[in-house]
Amino acid sequence: MDARSGLAHIAELVPRGSRVLDLGCGSGAFLAQLRDERGCRGIGIEIDDAMVAQCIRRDVKVLQLNLEDGLSLFDDDSFDVVLQLDTLQNLRHTEQLLRETARVGHQAVVSFPNFAHWPNRLSVLRGRMPVTKALPYQWFDTPNIRVGTFADFELLARQCGLRVLDAFGLHEGRRIDRWPNWRASTAVFHFERG
């Protein structure tokens, strides 16, 4: 997500006072924001040493784990909301973690770079992989294992038996509801088990 701009739109999906699990929480800044502004209690999962240290400095509870190992240490419905912001594209076992996300949380919010955004399409038509704010890496040095689109995730959600509560795009901090697969650089889905 463009430097995590647009997080205000995602914060609105998290009810006040919720128990939150943030998968791939980075520095813990968003969890700290939810704690301070919405009274949420939460824990982050992060693999990067430097990011874990930043979480600790922010007084954000964090576990250093590899998401590829799953979420078996959490019981069903352990959290009100599970966040998976800009992590989906970095995972090998996407479907498995998506099912685990729905298992441990009553609801979940997932966001990822929307490869179908019109500038990306134009770049591919010109014969080049896109490099944008949402996809800031060259094809040969990207941490992204896969690319996805708004429409792709809708199909995956149905396949996993998830009920989408809200779906929209984000671009430069603005919410995009009309033609998000074309107009949004980031896809956002709010869902629960079906």
Automatic annotation (TrEMBL):
Name the SUPFAM superfamilies for this protein: S-adenosyl-L-methionine-dependent methyltransferases (SSF53335)
Q: What Pfam families has UniProt attached to this entry?
A: MetW
Q: Which gene is transcribed and translated to give this protein?
A: metW
User: Source organism lineage?
Assistant: Bacteria, Pseudomonadati, Pseudomonadota, Betaproteobacteria, Burkholderiales
| Protein name as annotated | Methionine biosynthesis protein MetW
Q: Name one GO molecular function term.
A: methyltransferase activity
Q: Which InterPro entries match?
A: Methionine_synth_MetW (IPR010743), Methyltransf_Superfamily (IPR050508), SAM-dependent_MTases_sf (IPR029063)
Q: Which organism is it from?
A: Rubrivivax albus
Taxonomically, the superkingdom here is Bacteria
Q: Which Gene3D superfamilies does its entry note?
A: Vaccinia Virus protein VP39
